[in-house]
Amino acid sequence: MLDLLLTSGADVLLLDEPDNYLDIPTRAWLEEQIRSCRSTILMVSHDRTLLERVATKIVVIEGAGCWVHGGSYTTFPEARAKRQEQLGDELKRWNDEERRLFHHMKMMKQRAAQNFKNATKANAAETRWEKFVAAGPPPPPVADQQIHVRLRGADAARRVARLEGVAIGNLFRPFSDEIHHGERLGLIGPNGTGKSHLLRALAGTVPPDHGAISYGPRTSIGTFTQINDRPDFIGRTCLDIVGERSFDDEKSMKALARYGLRTNARQGFDTLSGGQKARLEILCLELEGHNVLLLDEPTDNLDIESSESLEQALDGFEGTVVAVSHDRTFLAKFDRYLMITDDGGVYELPDYDVAMQALAAPGAVDGLRLAKSLTSPSA
């Protein structure tokens, strides 16, 4: 569908989250198609890498209106910060002028009470103040929409998990690896190669079809599911779910407020939007205090501000993070990567640049200097 749209020759194309459900190689293809497309494109997206590479103008809808940044997403954060500062300065000047006009009016009325000759001036001062107030203040700075995540991991053994000859169905061949405390491990590869299946096996929700996974002492695992699959949350309110973990309504409300969910406190989980469900799941992970987090597409339903807040929290998290993601900005901060290929191979990749090279040319991953196969050819 995207291919047909982008080559249709239409004057204007409207694309609503075109990157949704696309793996990283397909997102790279989408970027090339957009760059070479002659149509004017209006696109909604939360993919920061995509926006950085293809957007030439940013239309921002926030607060009670919208504004335009005439540049790329790379320069947008600085432009928004300057705009926020400018809005604050303009509002302060308006408030200062309103106070000055009001005090001048009060002074003139006091003089008019003493000498009726000042009545005309007093009326004029009152009219100026009333007109100024009636025109209204300039728009205020937009309220901070970020969520405030506080992830704290308990202590764990140096080796969190050992995978020995693990395979699942025909998705990937048996491979072995170790995950250590404090690691940031990204699971990458094309759609349908078994990344989410491997994450569920690590979580212990489904056993591997071959091999075994063992865990170090004091390992406590928390999971975030790609489709917010939480049957234990269905039919329950946000306050009930959070209260089960904080044991205090006041603390629960404060926690919900940090995640932008205060007004949804008495709303049922099944009626929340995808983004609200994602934020609630992350809040629960925070309150549960796990030292290993298994995250399946955690930024998929989050807006950009919420994704950045999650990343900042993970930066300060002392535990281990294993994540499946196609969000390149999110993945860029990880320590190493396991890539599952279409033919069932599993490779260890030591850094982000090598991982992106492997995804761009999966058929040549064996030839990458630092790529290491974790499966044997005969497996």
TrEMBL record:
Transmembrane parts of this sequence: none
Q: Which GO terms describe its molecular function?
A: ATP binding; ATP hydrolysis activity
What are the entry keywords? Answer: ATP-binding, Nucleotide-binding, Repeat
What single Pfam family name could you report for this chain, choosing any that match?
Answer: ABC_tran
Which SUPFAM superfamilies does this chain map to? P-loop containing nucleoside triphosphate hydrolases (SSF52540)
Against PANTHER family, the record matches this protein to: ATP-BINDING PROTEIN UUP (PTHR19211:SF69), ATP-BINDING TRANSPORT PROTEIN-RELATED (PTHR19211)
Protein name, as recorded = Unannotated protein
Lineage of origin = unclassified sequences, metagenomes, ecological metagenomes
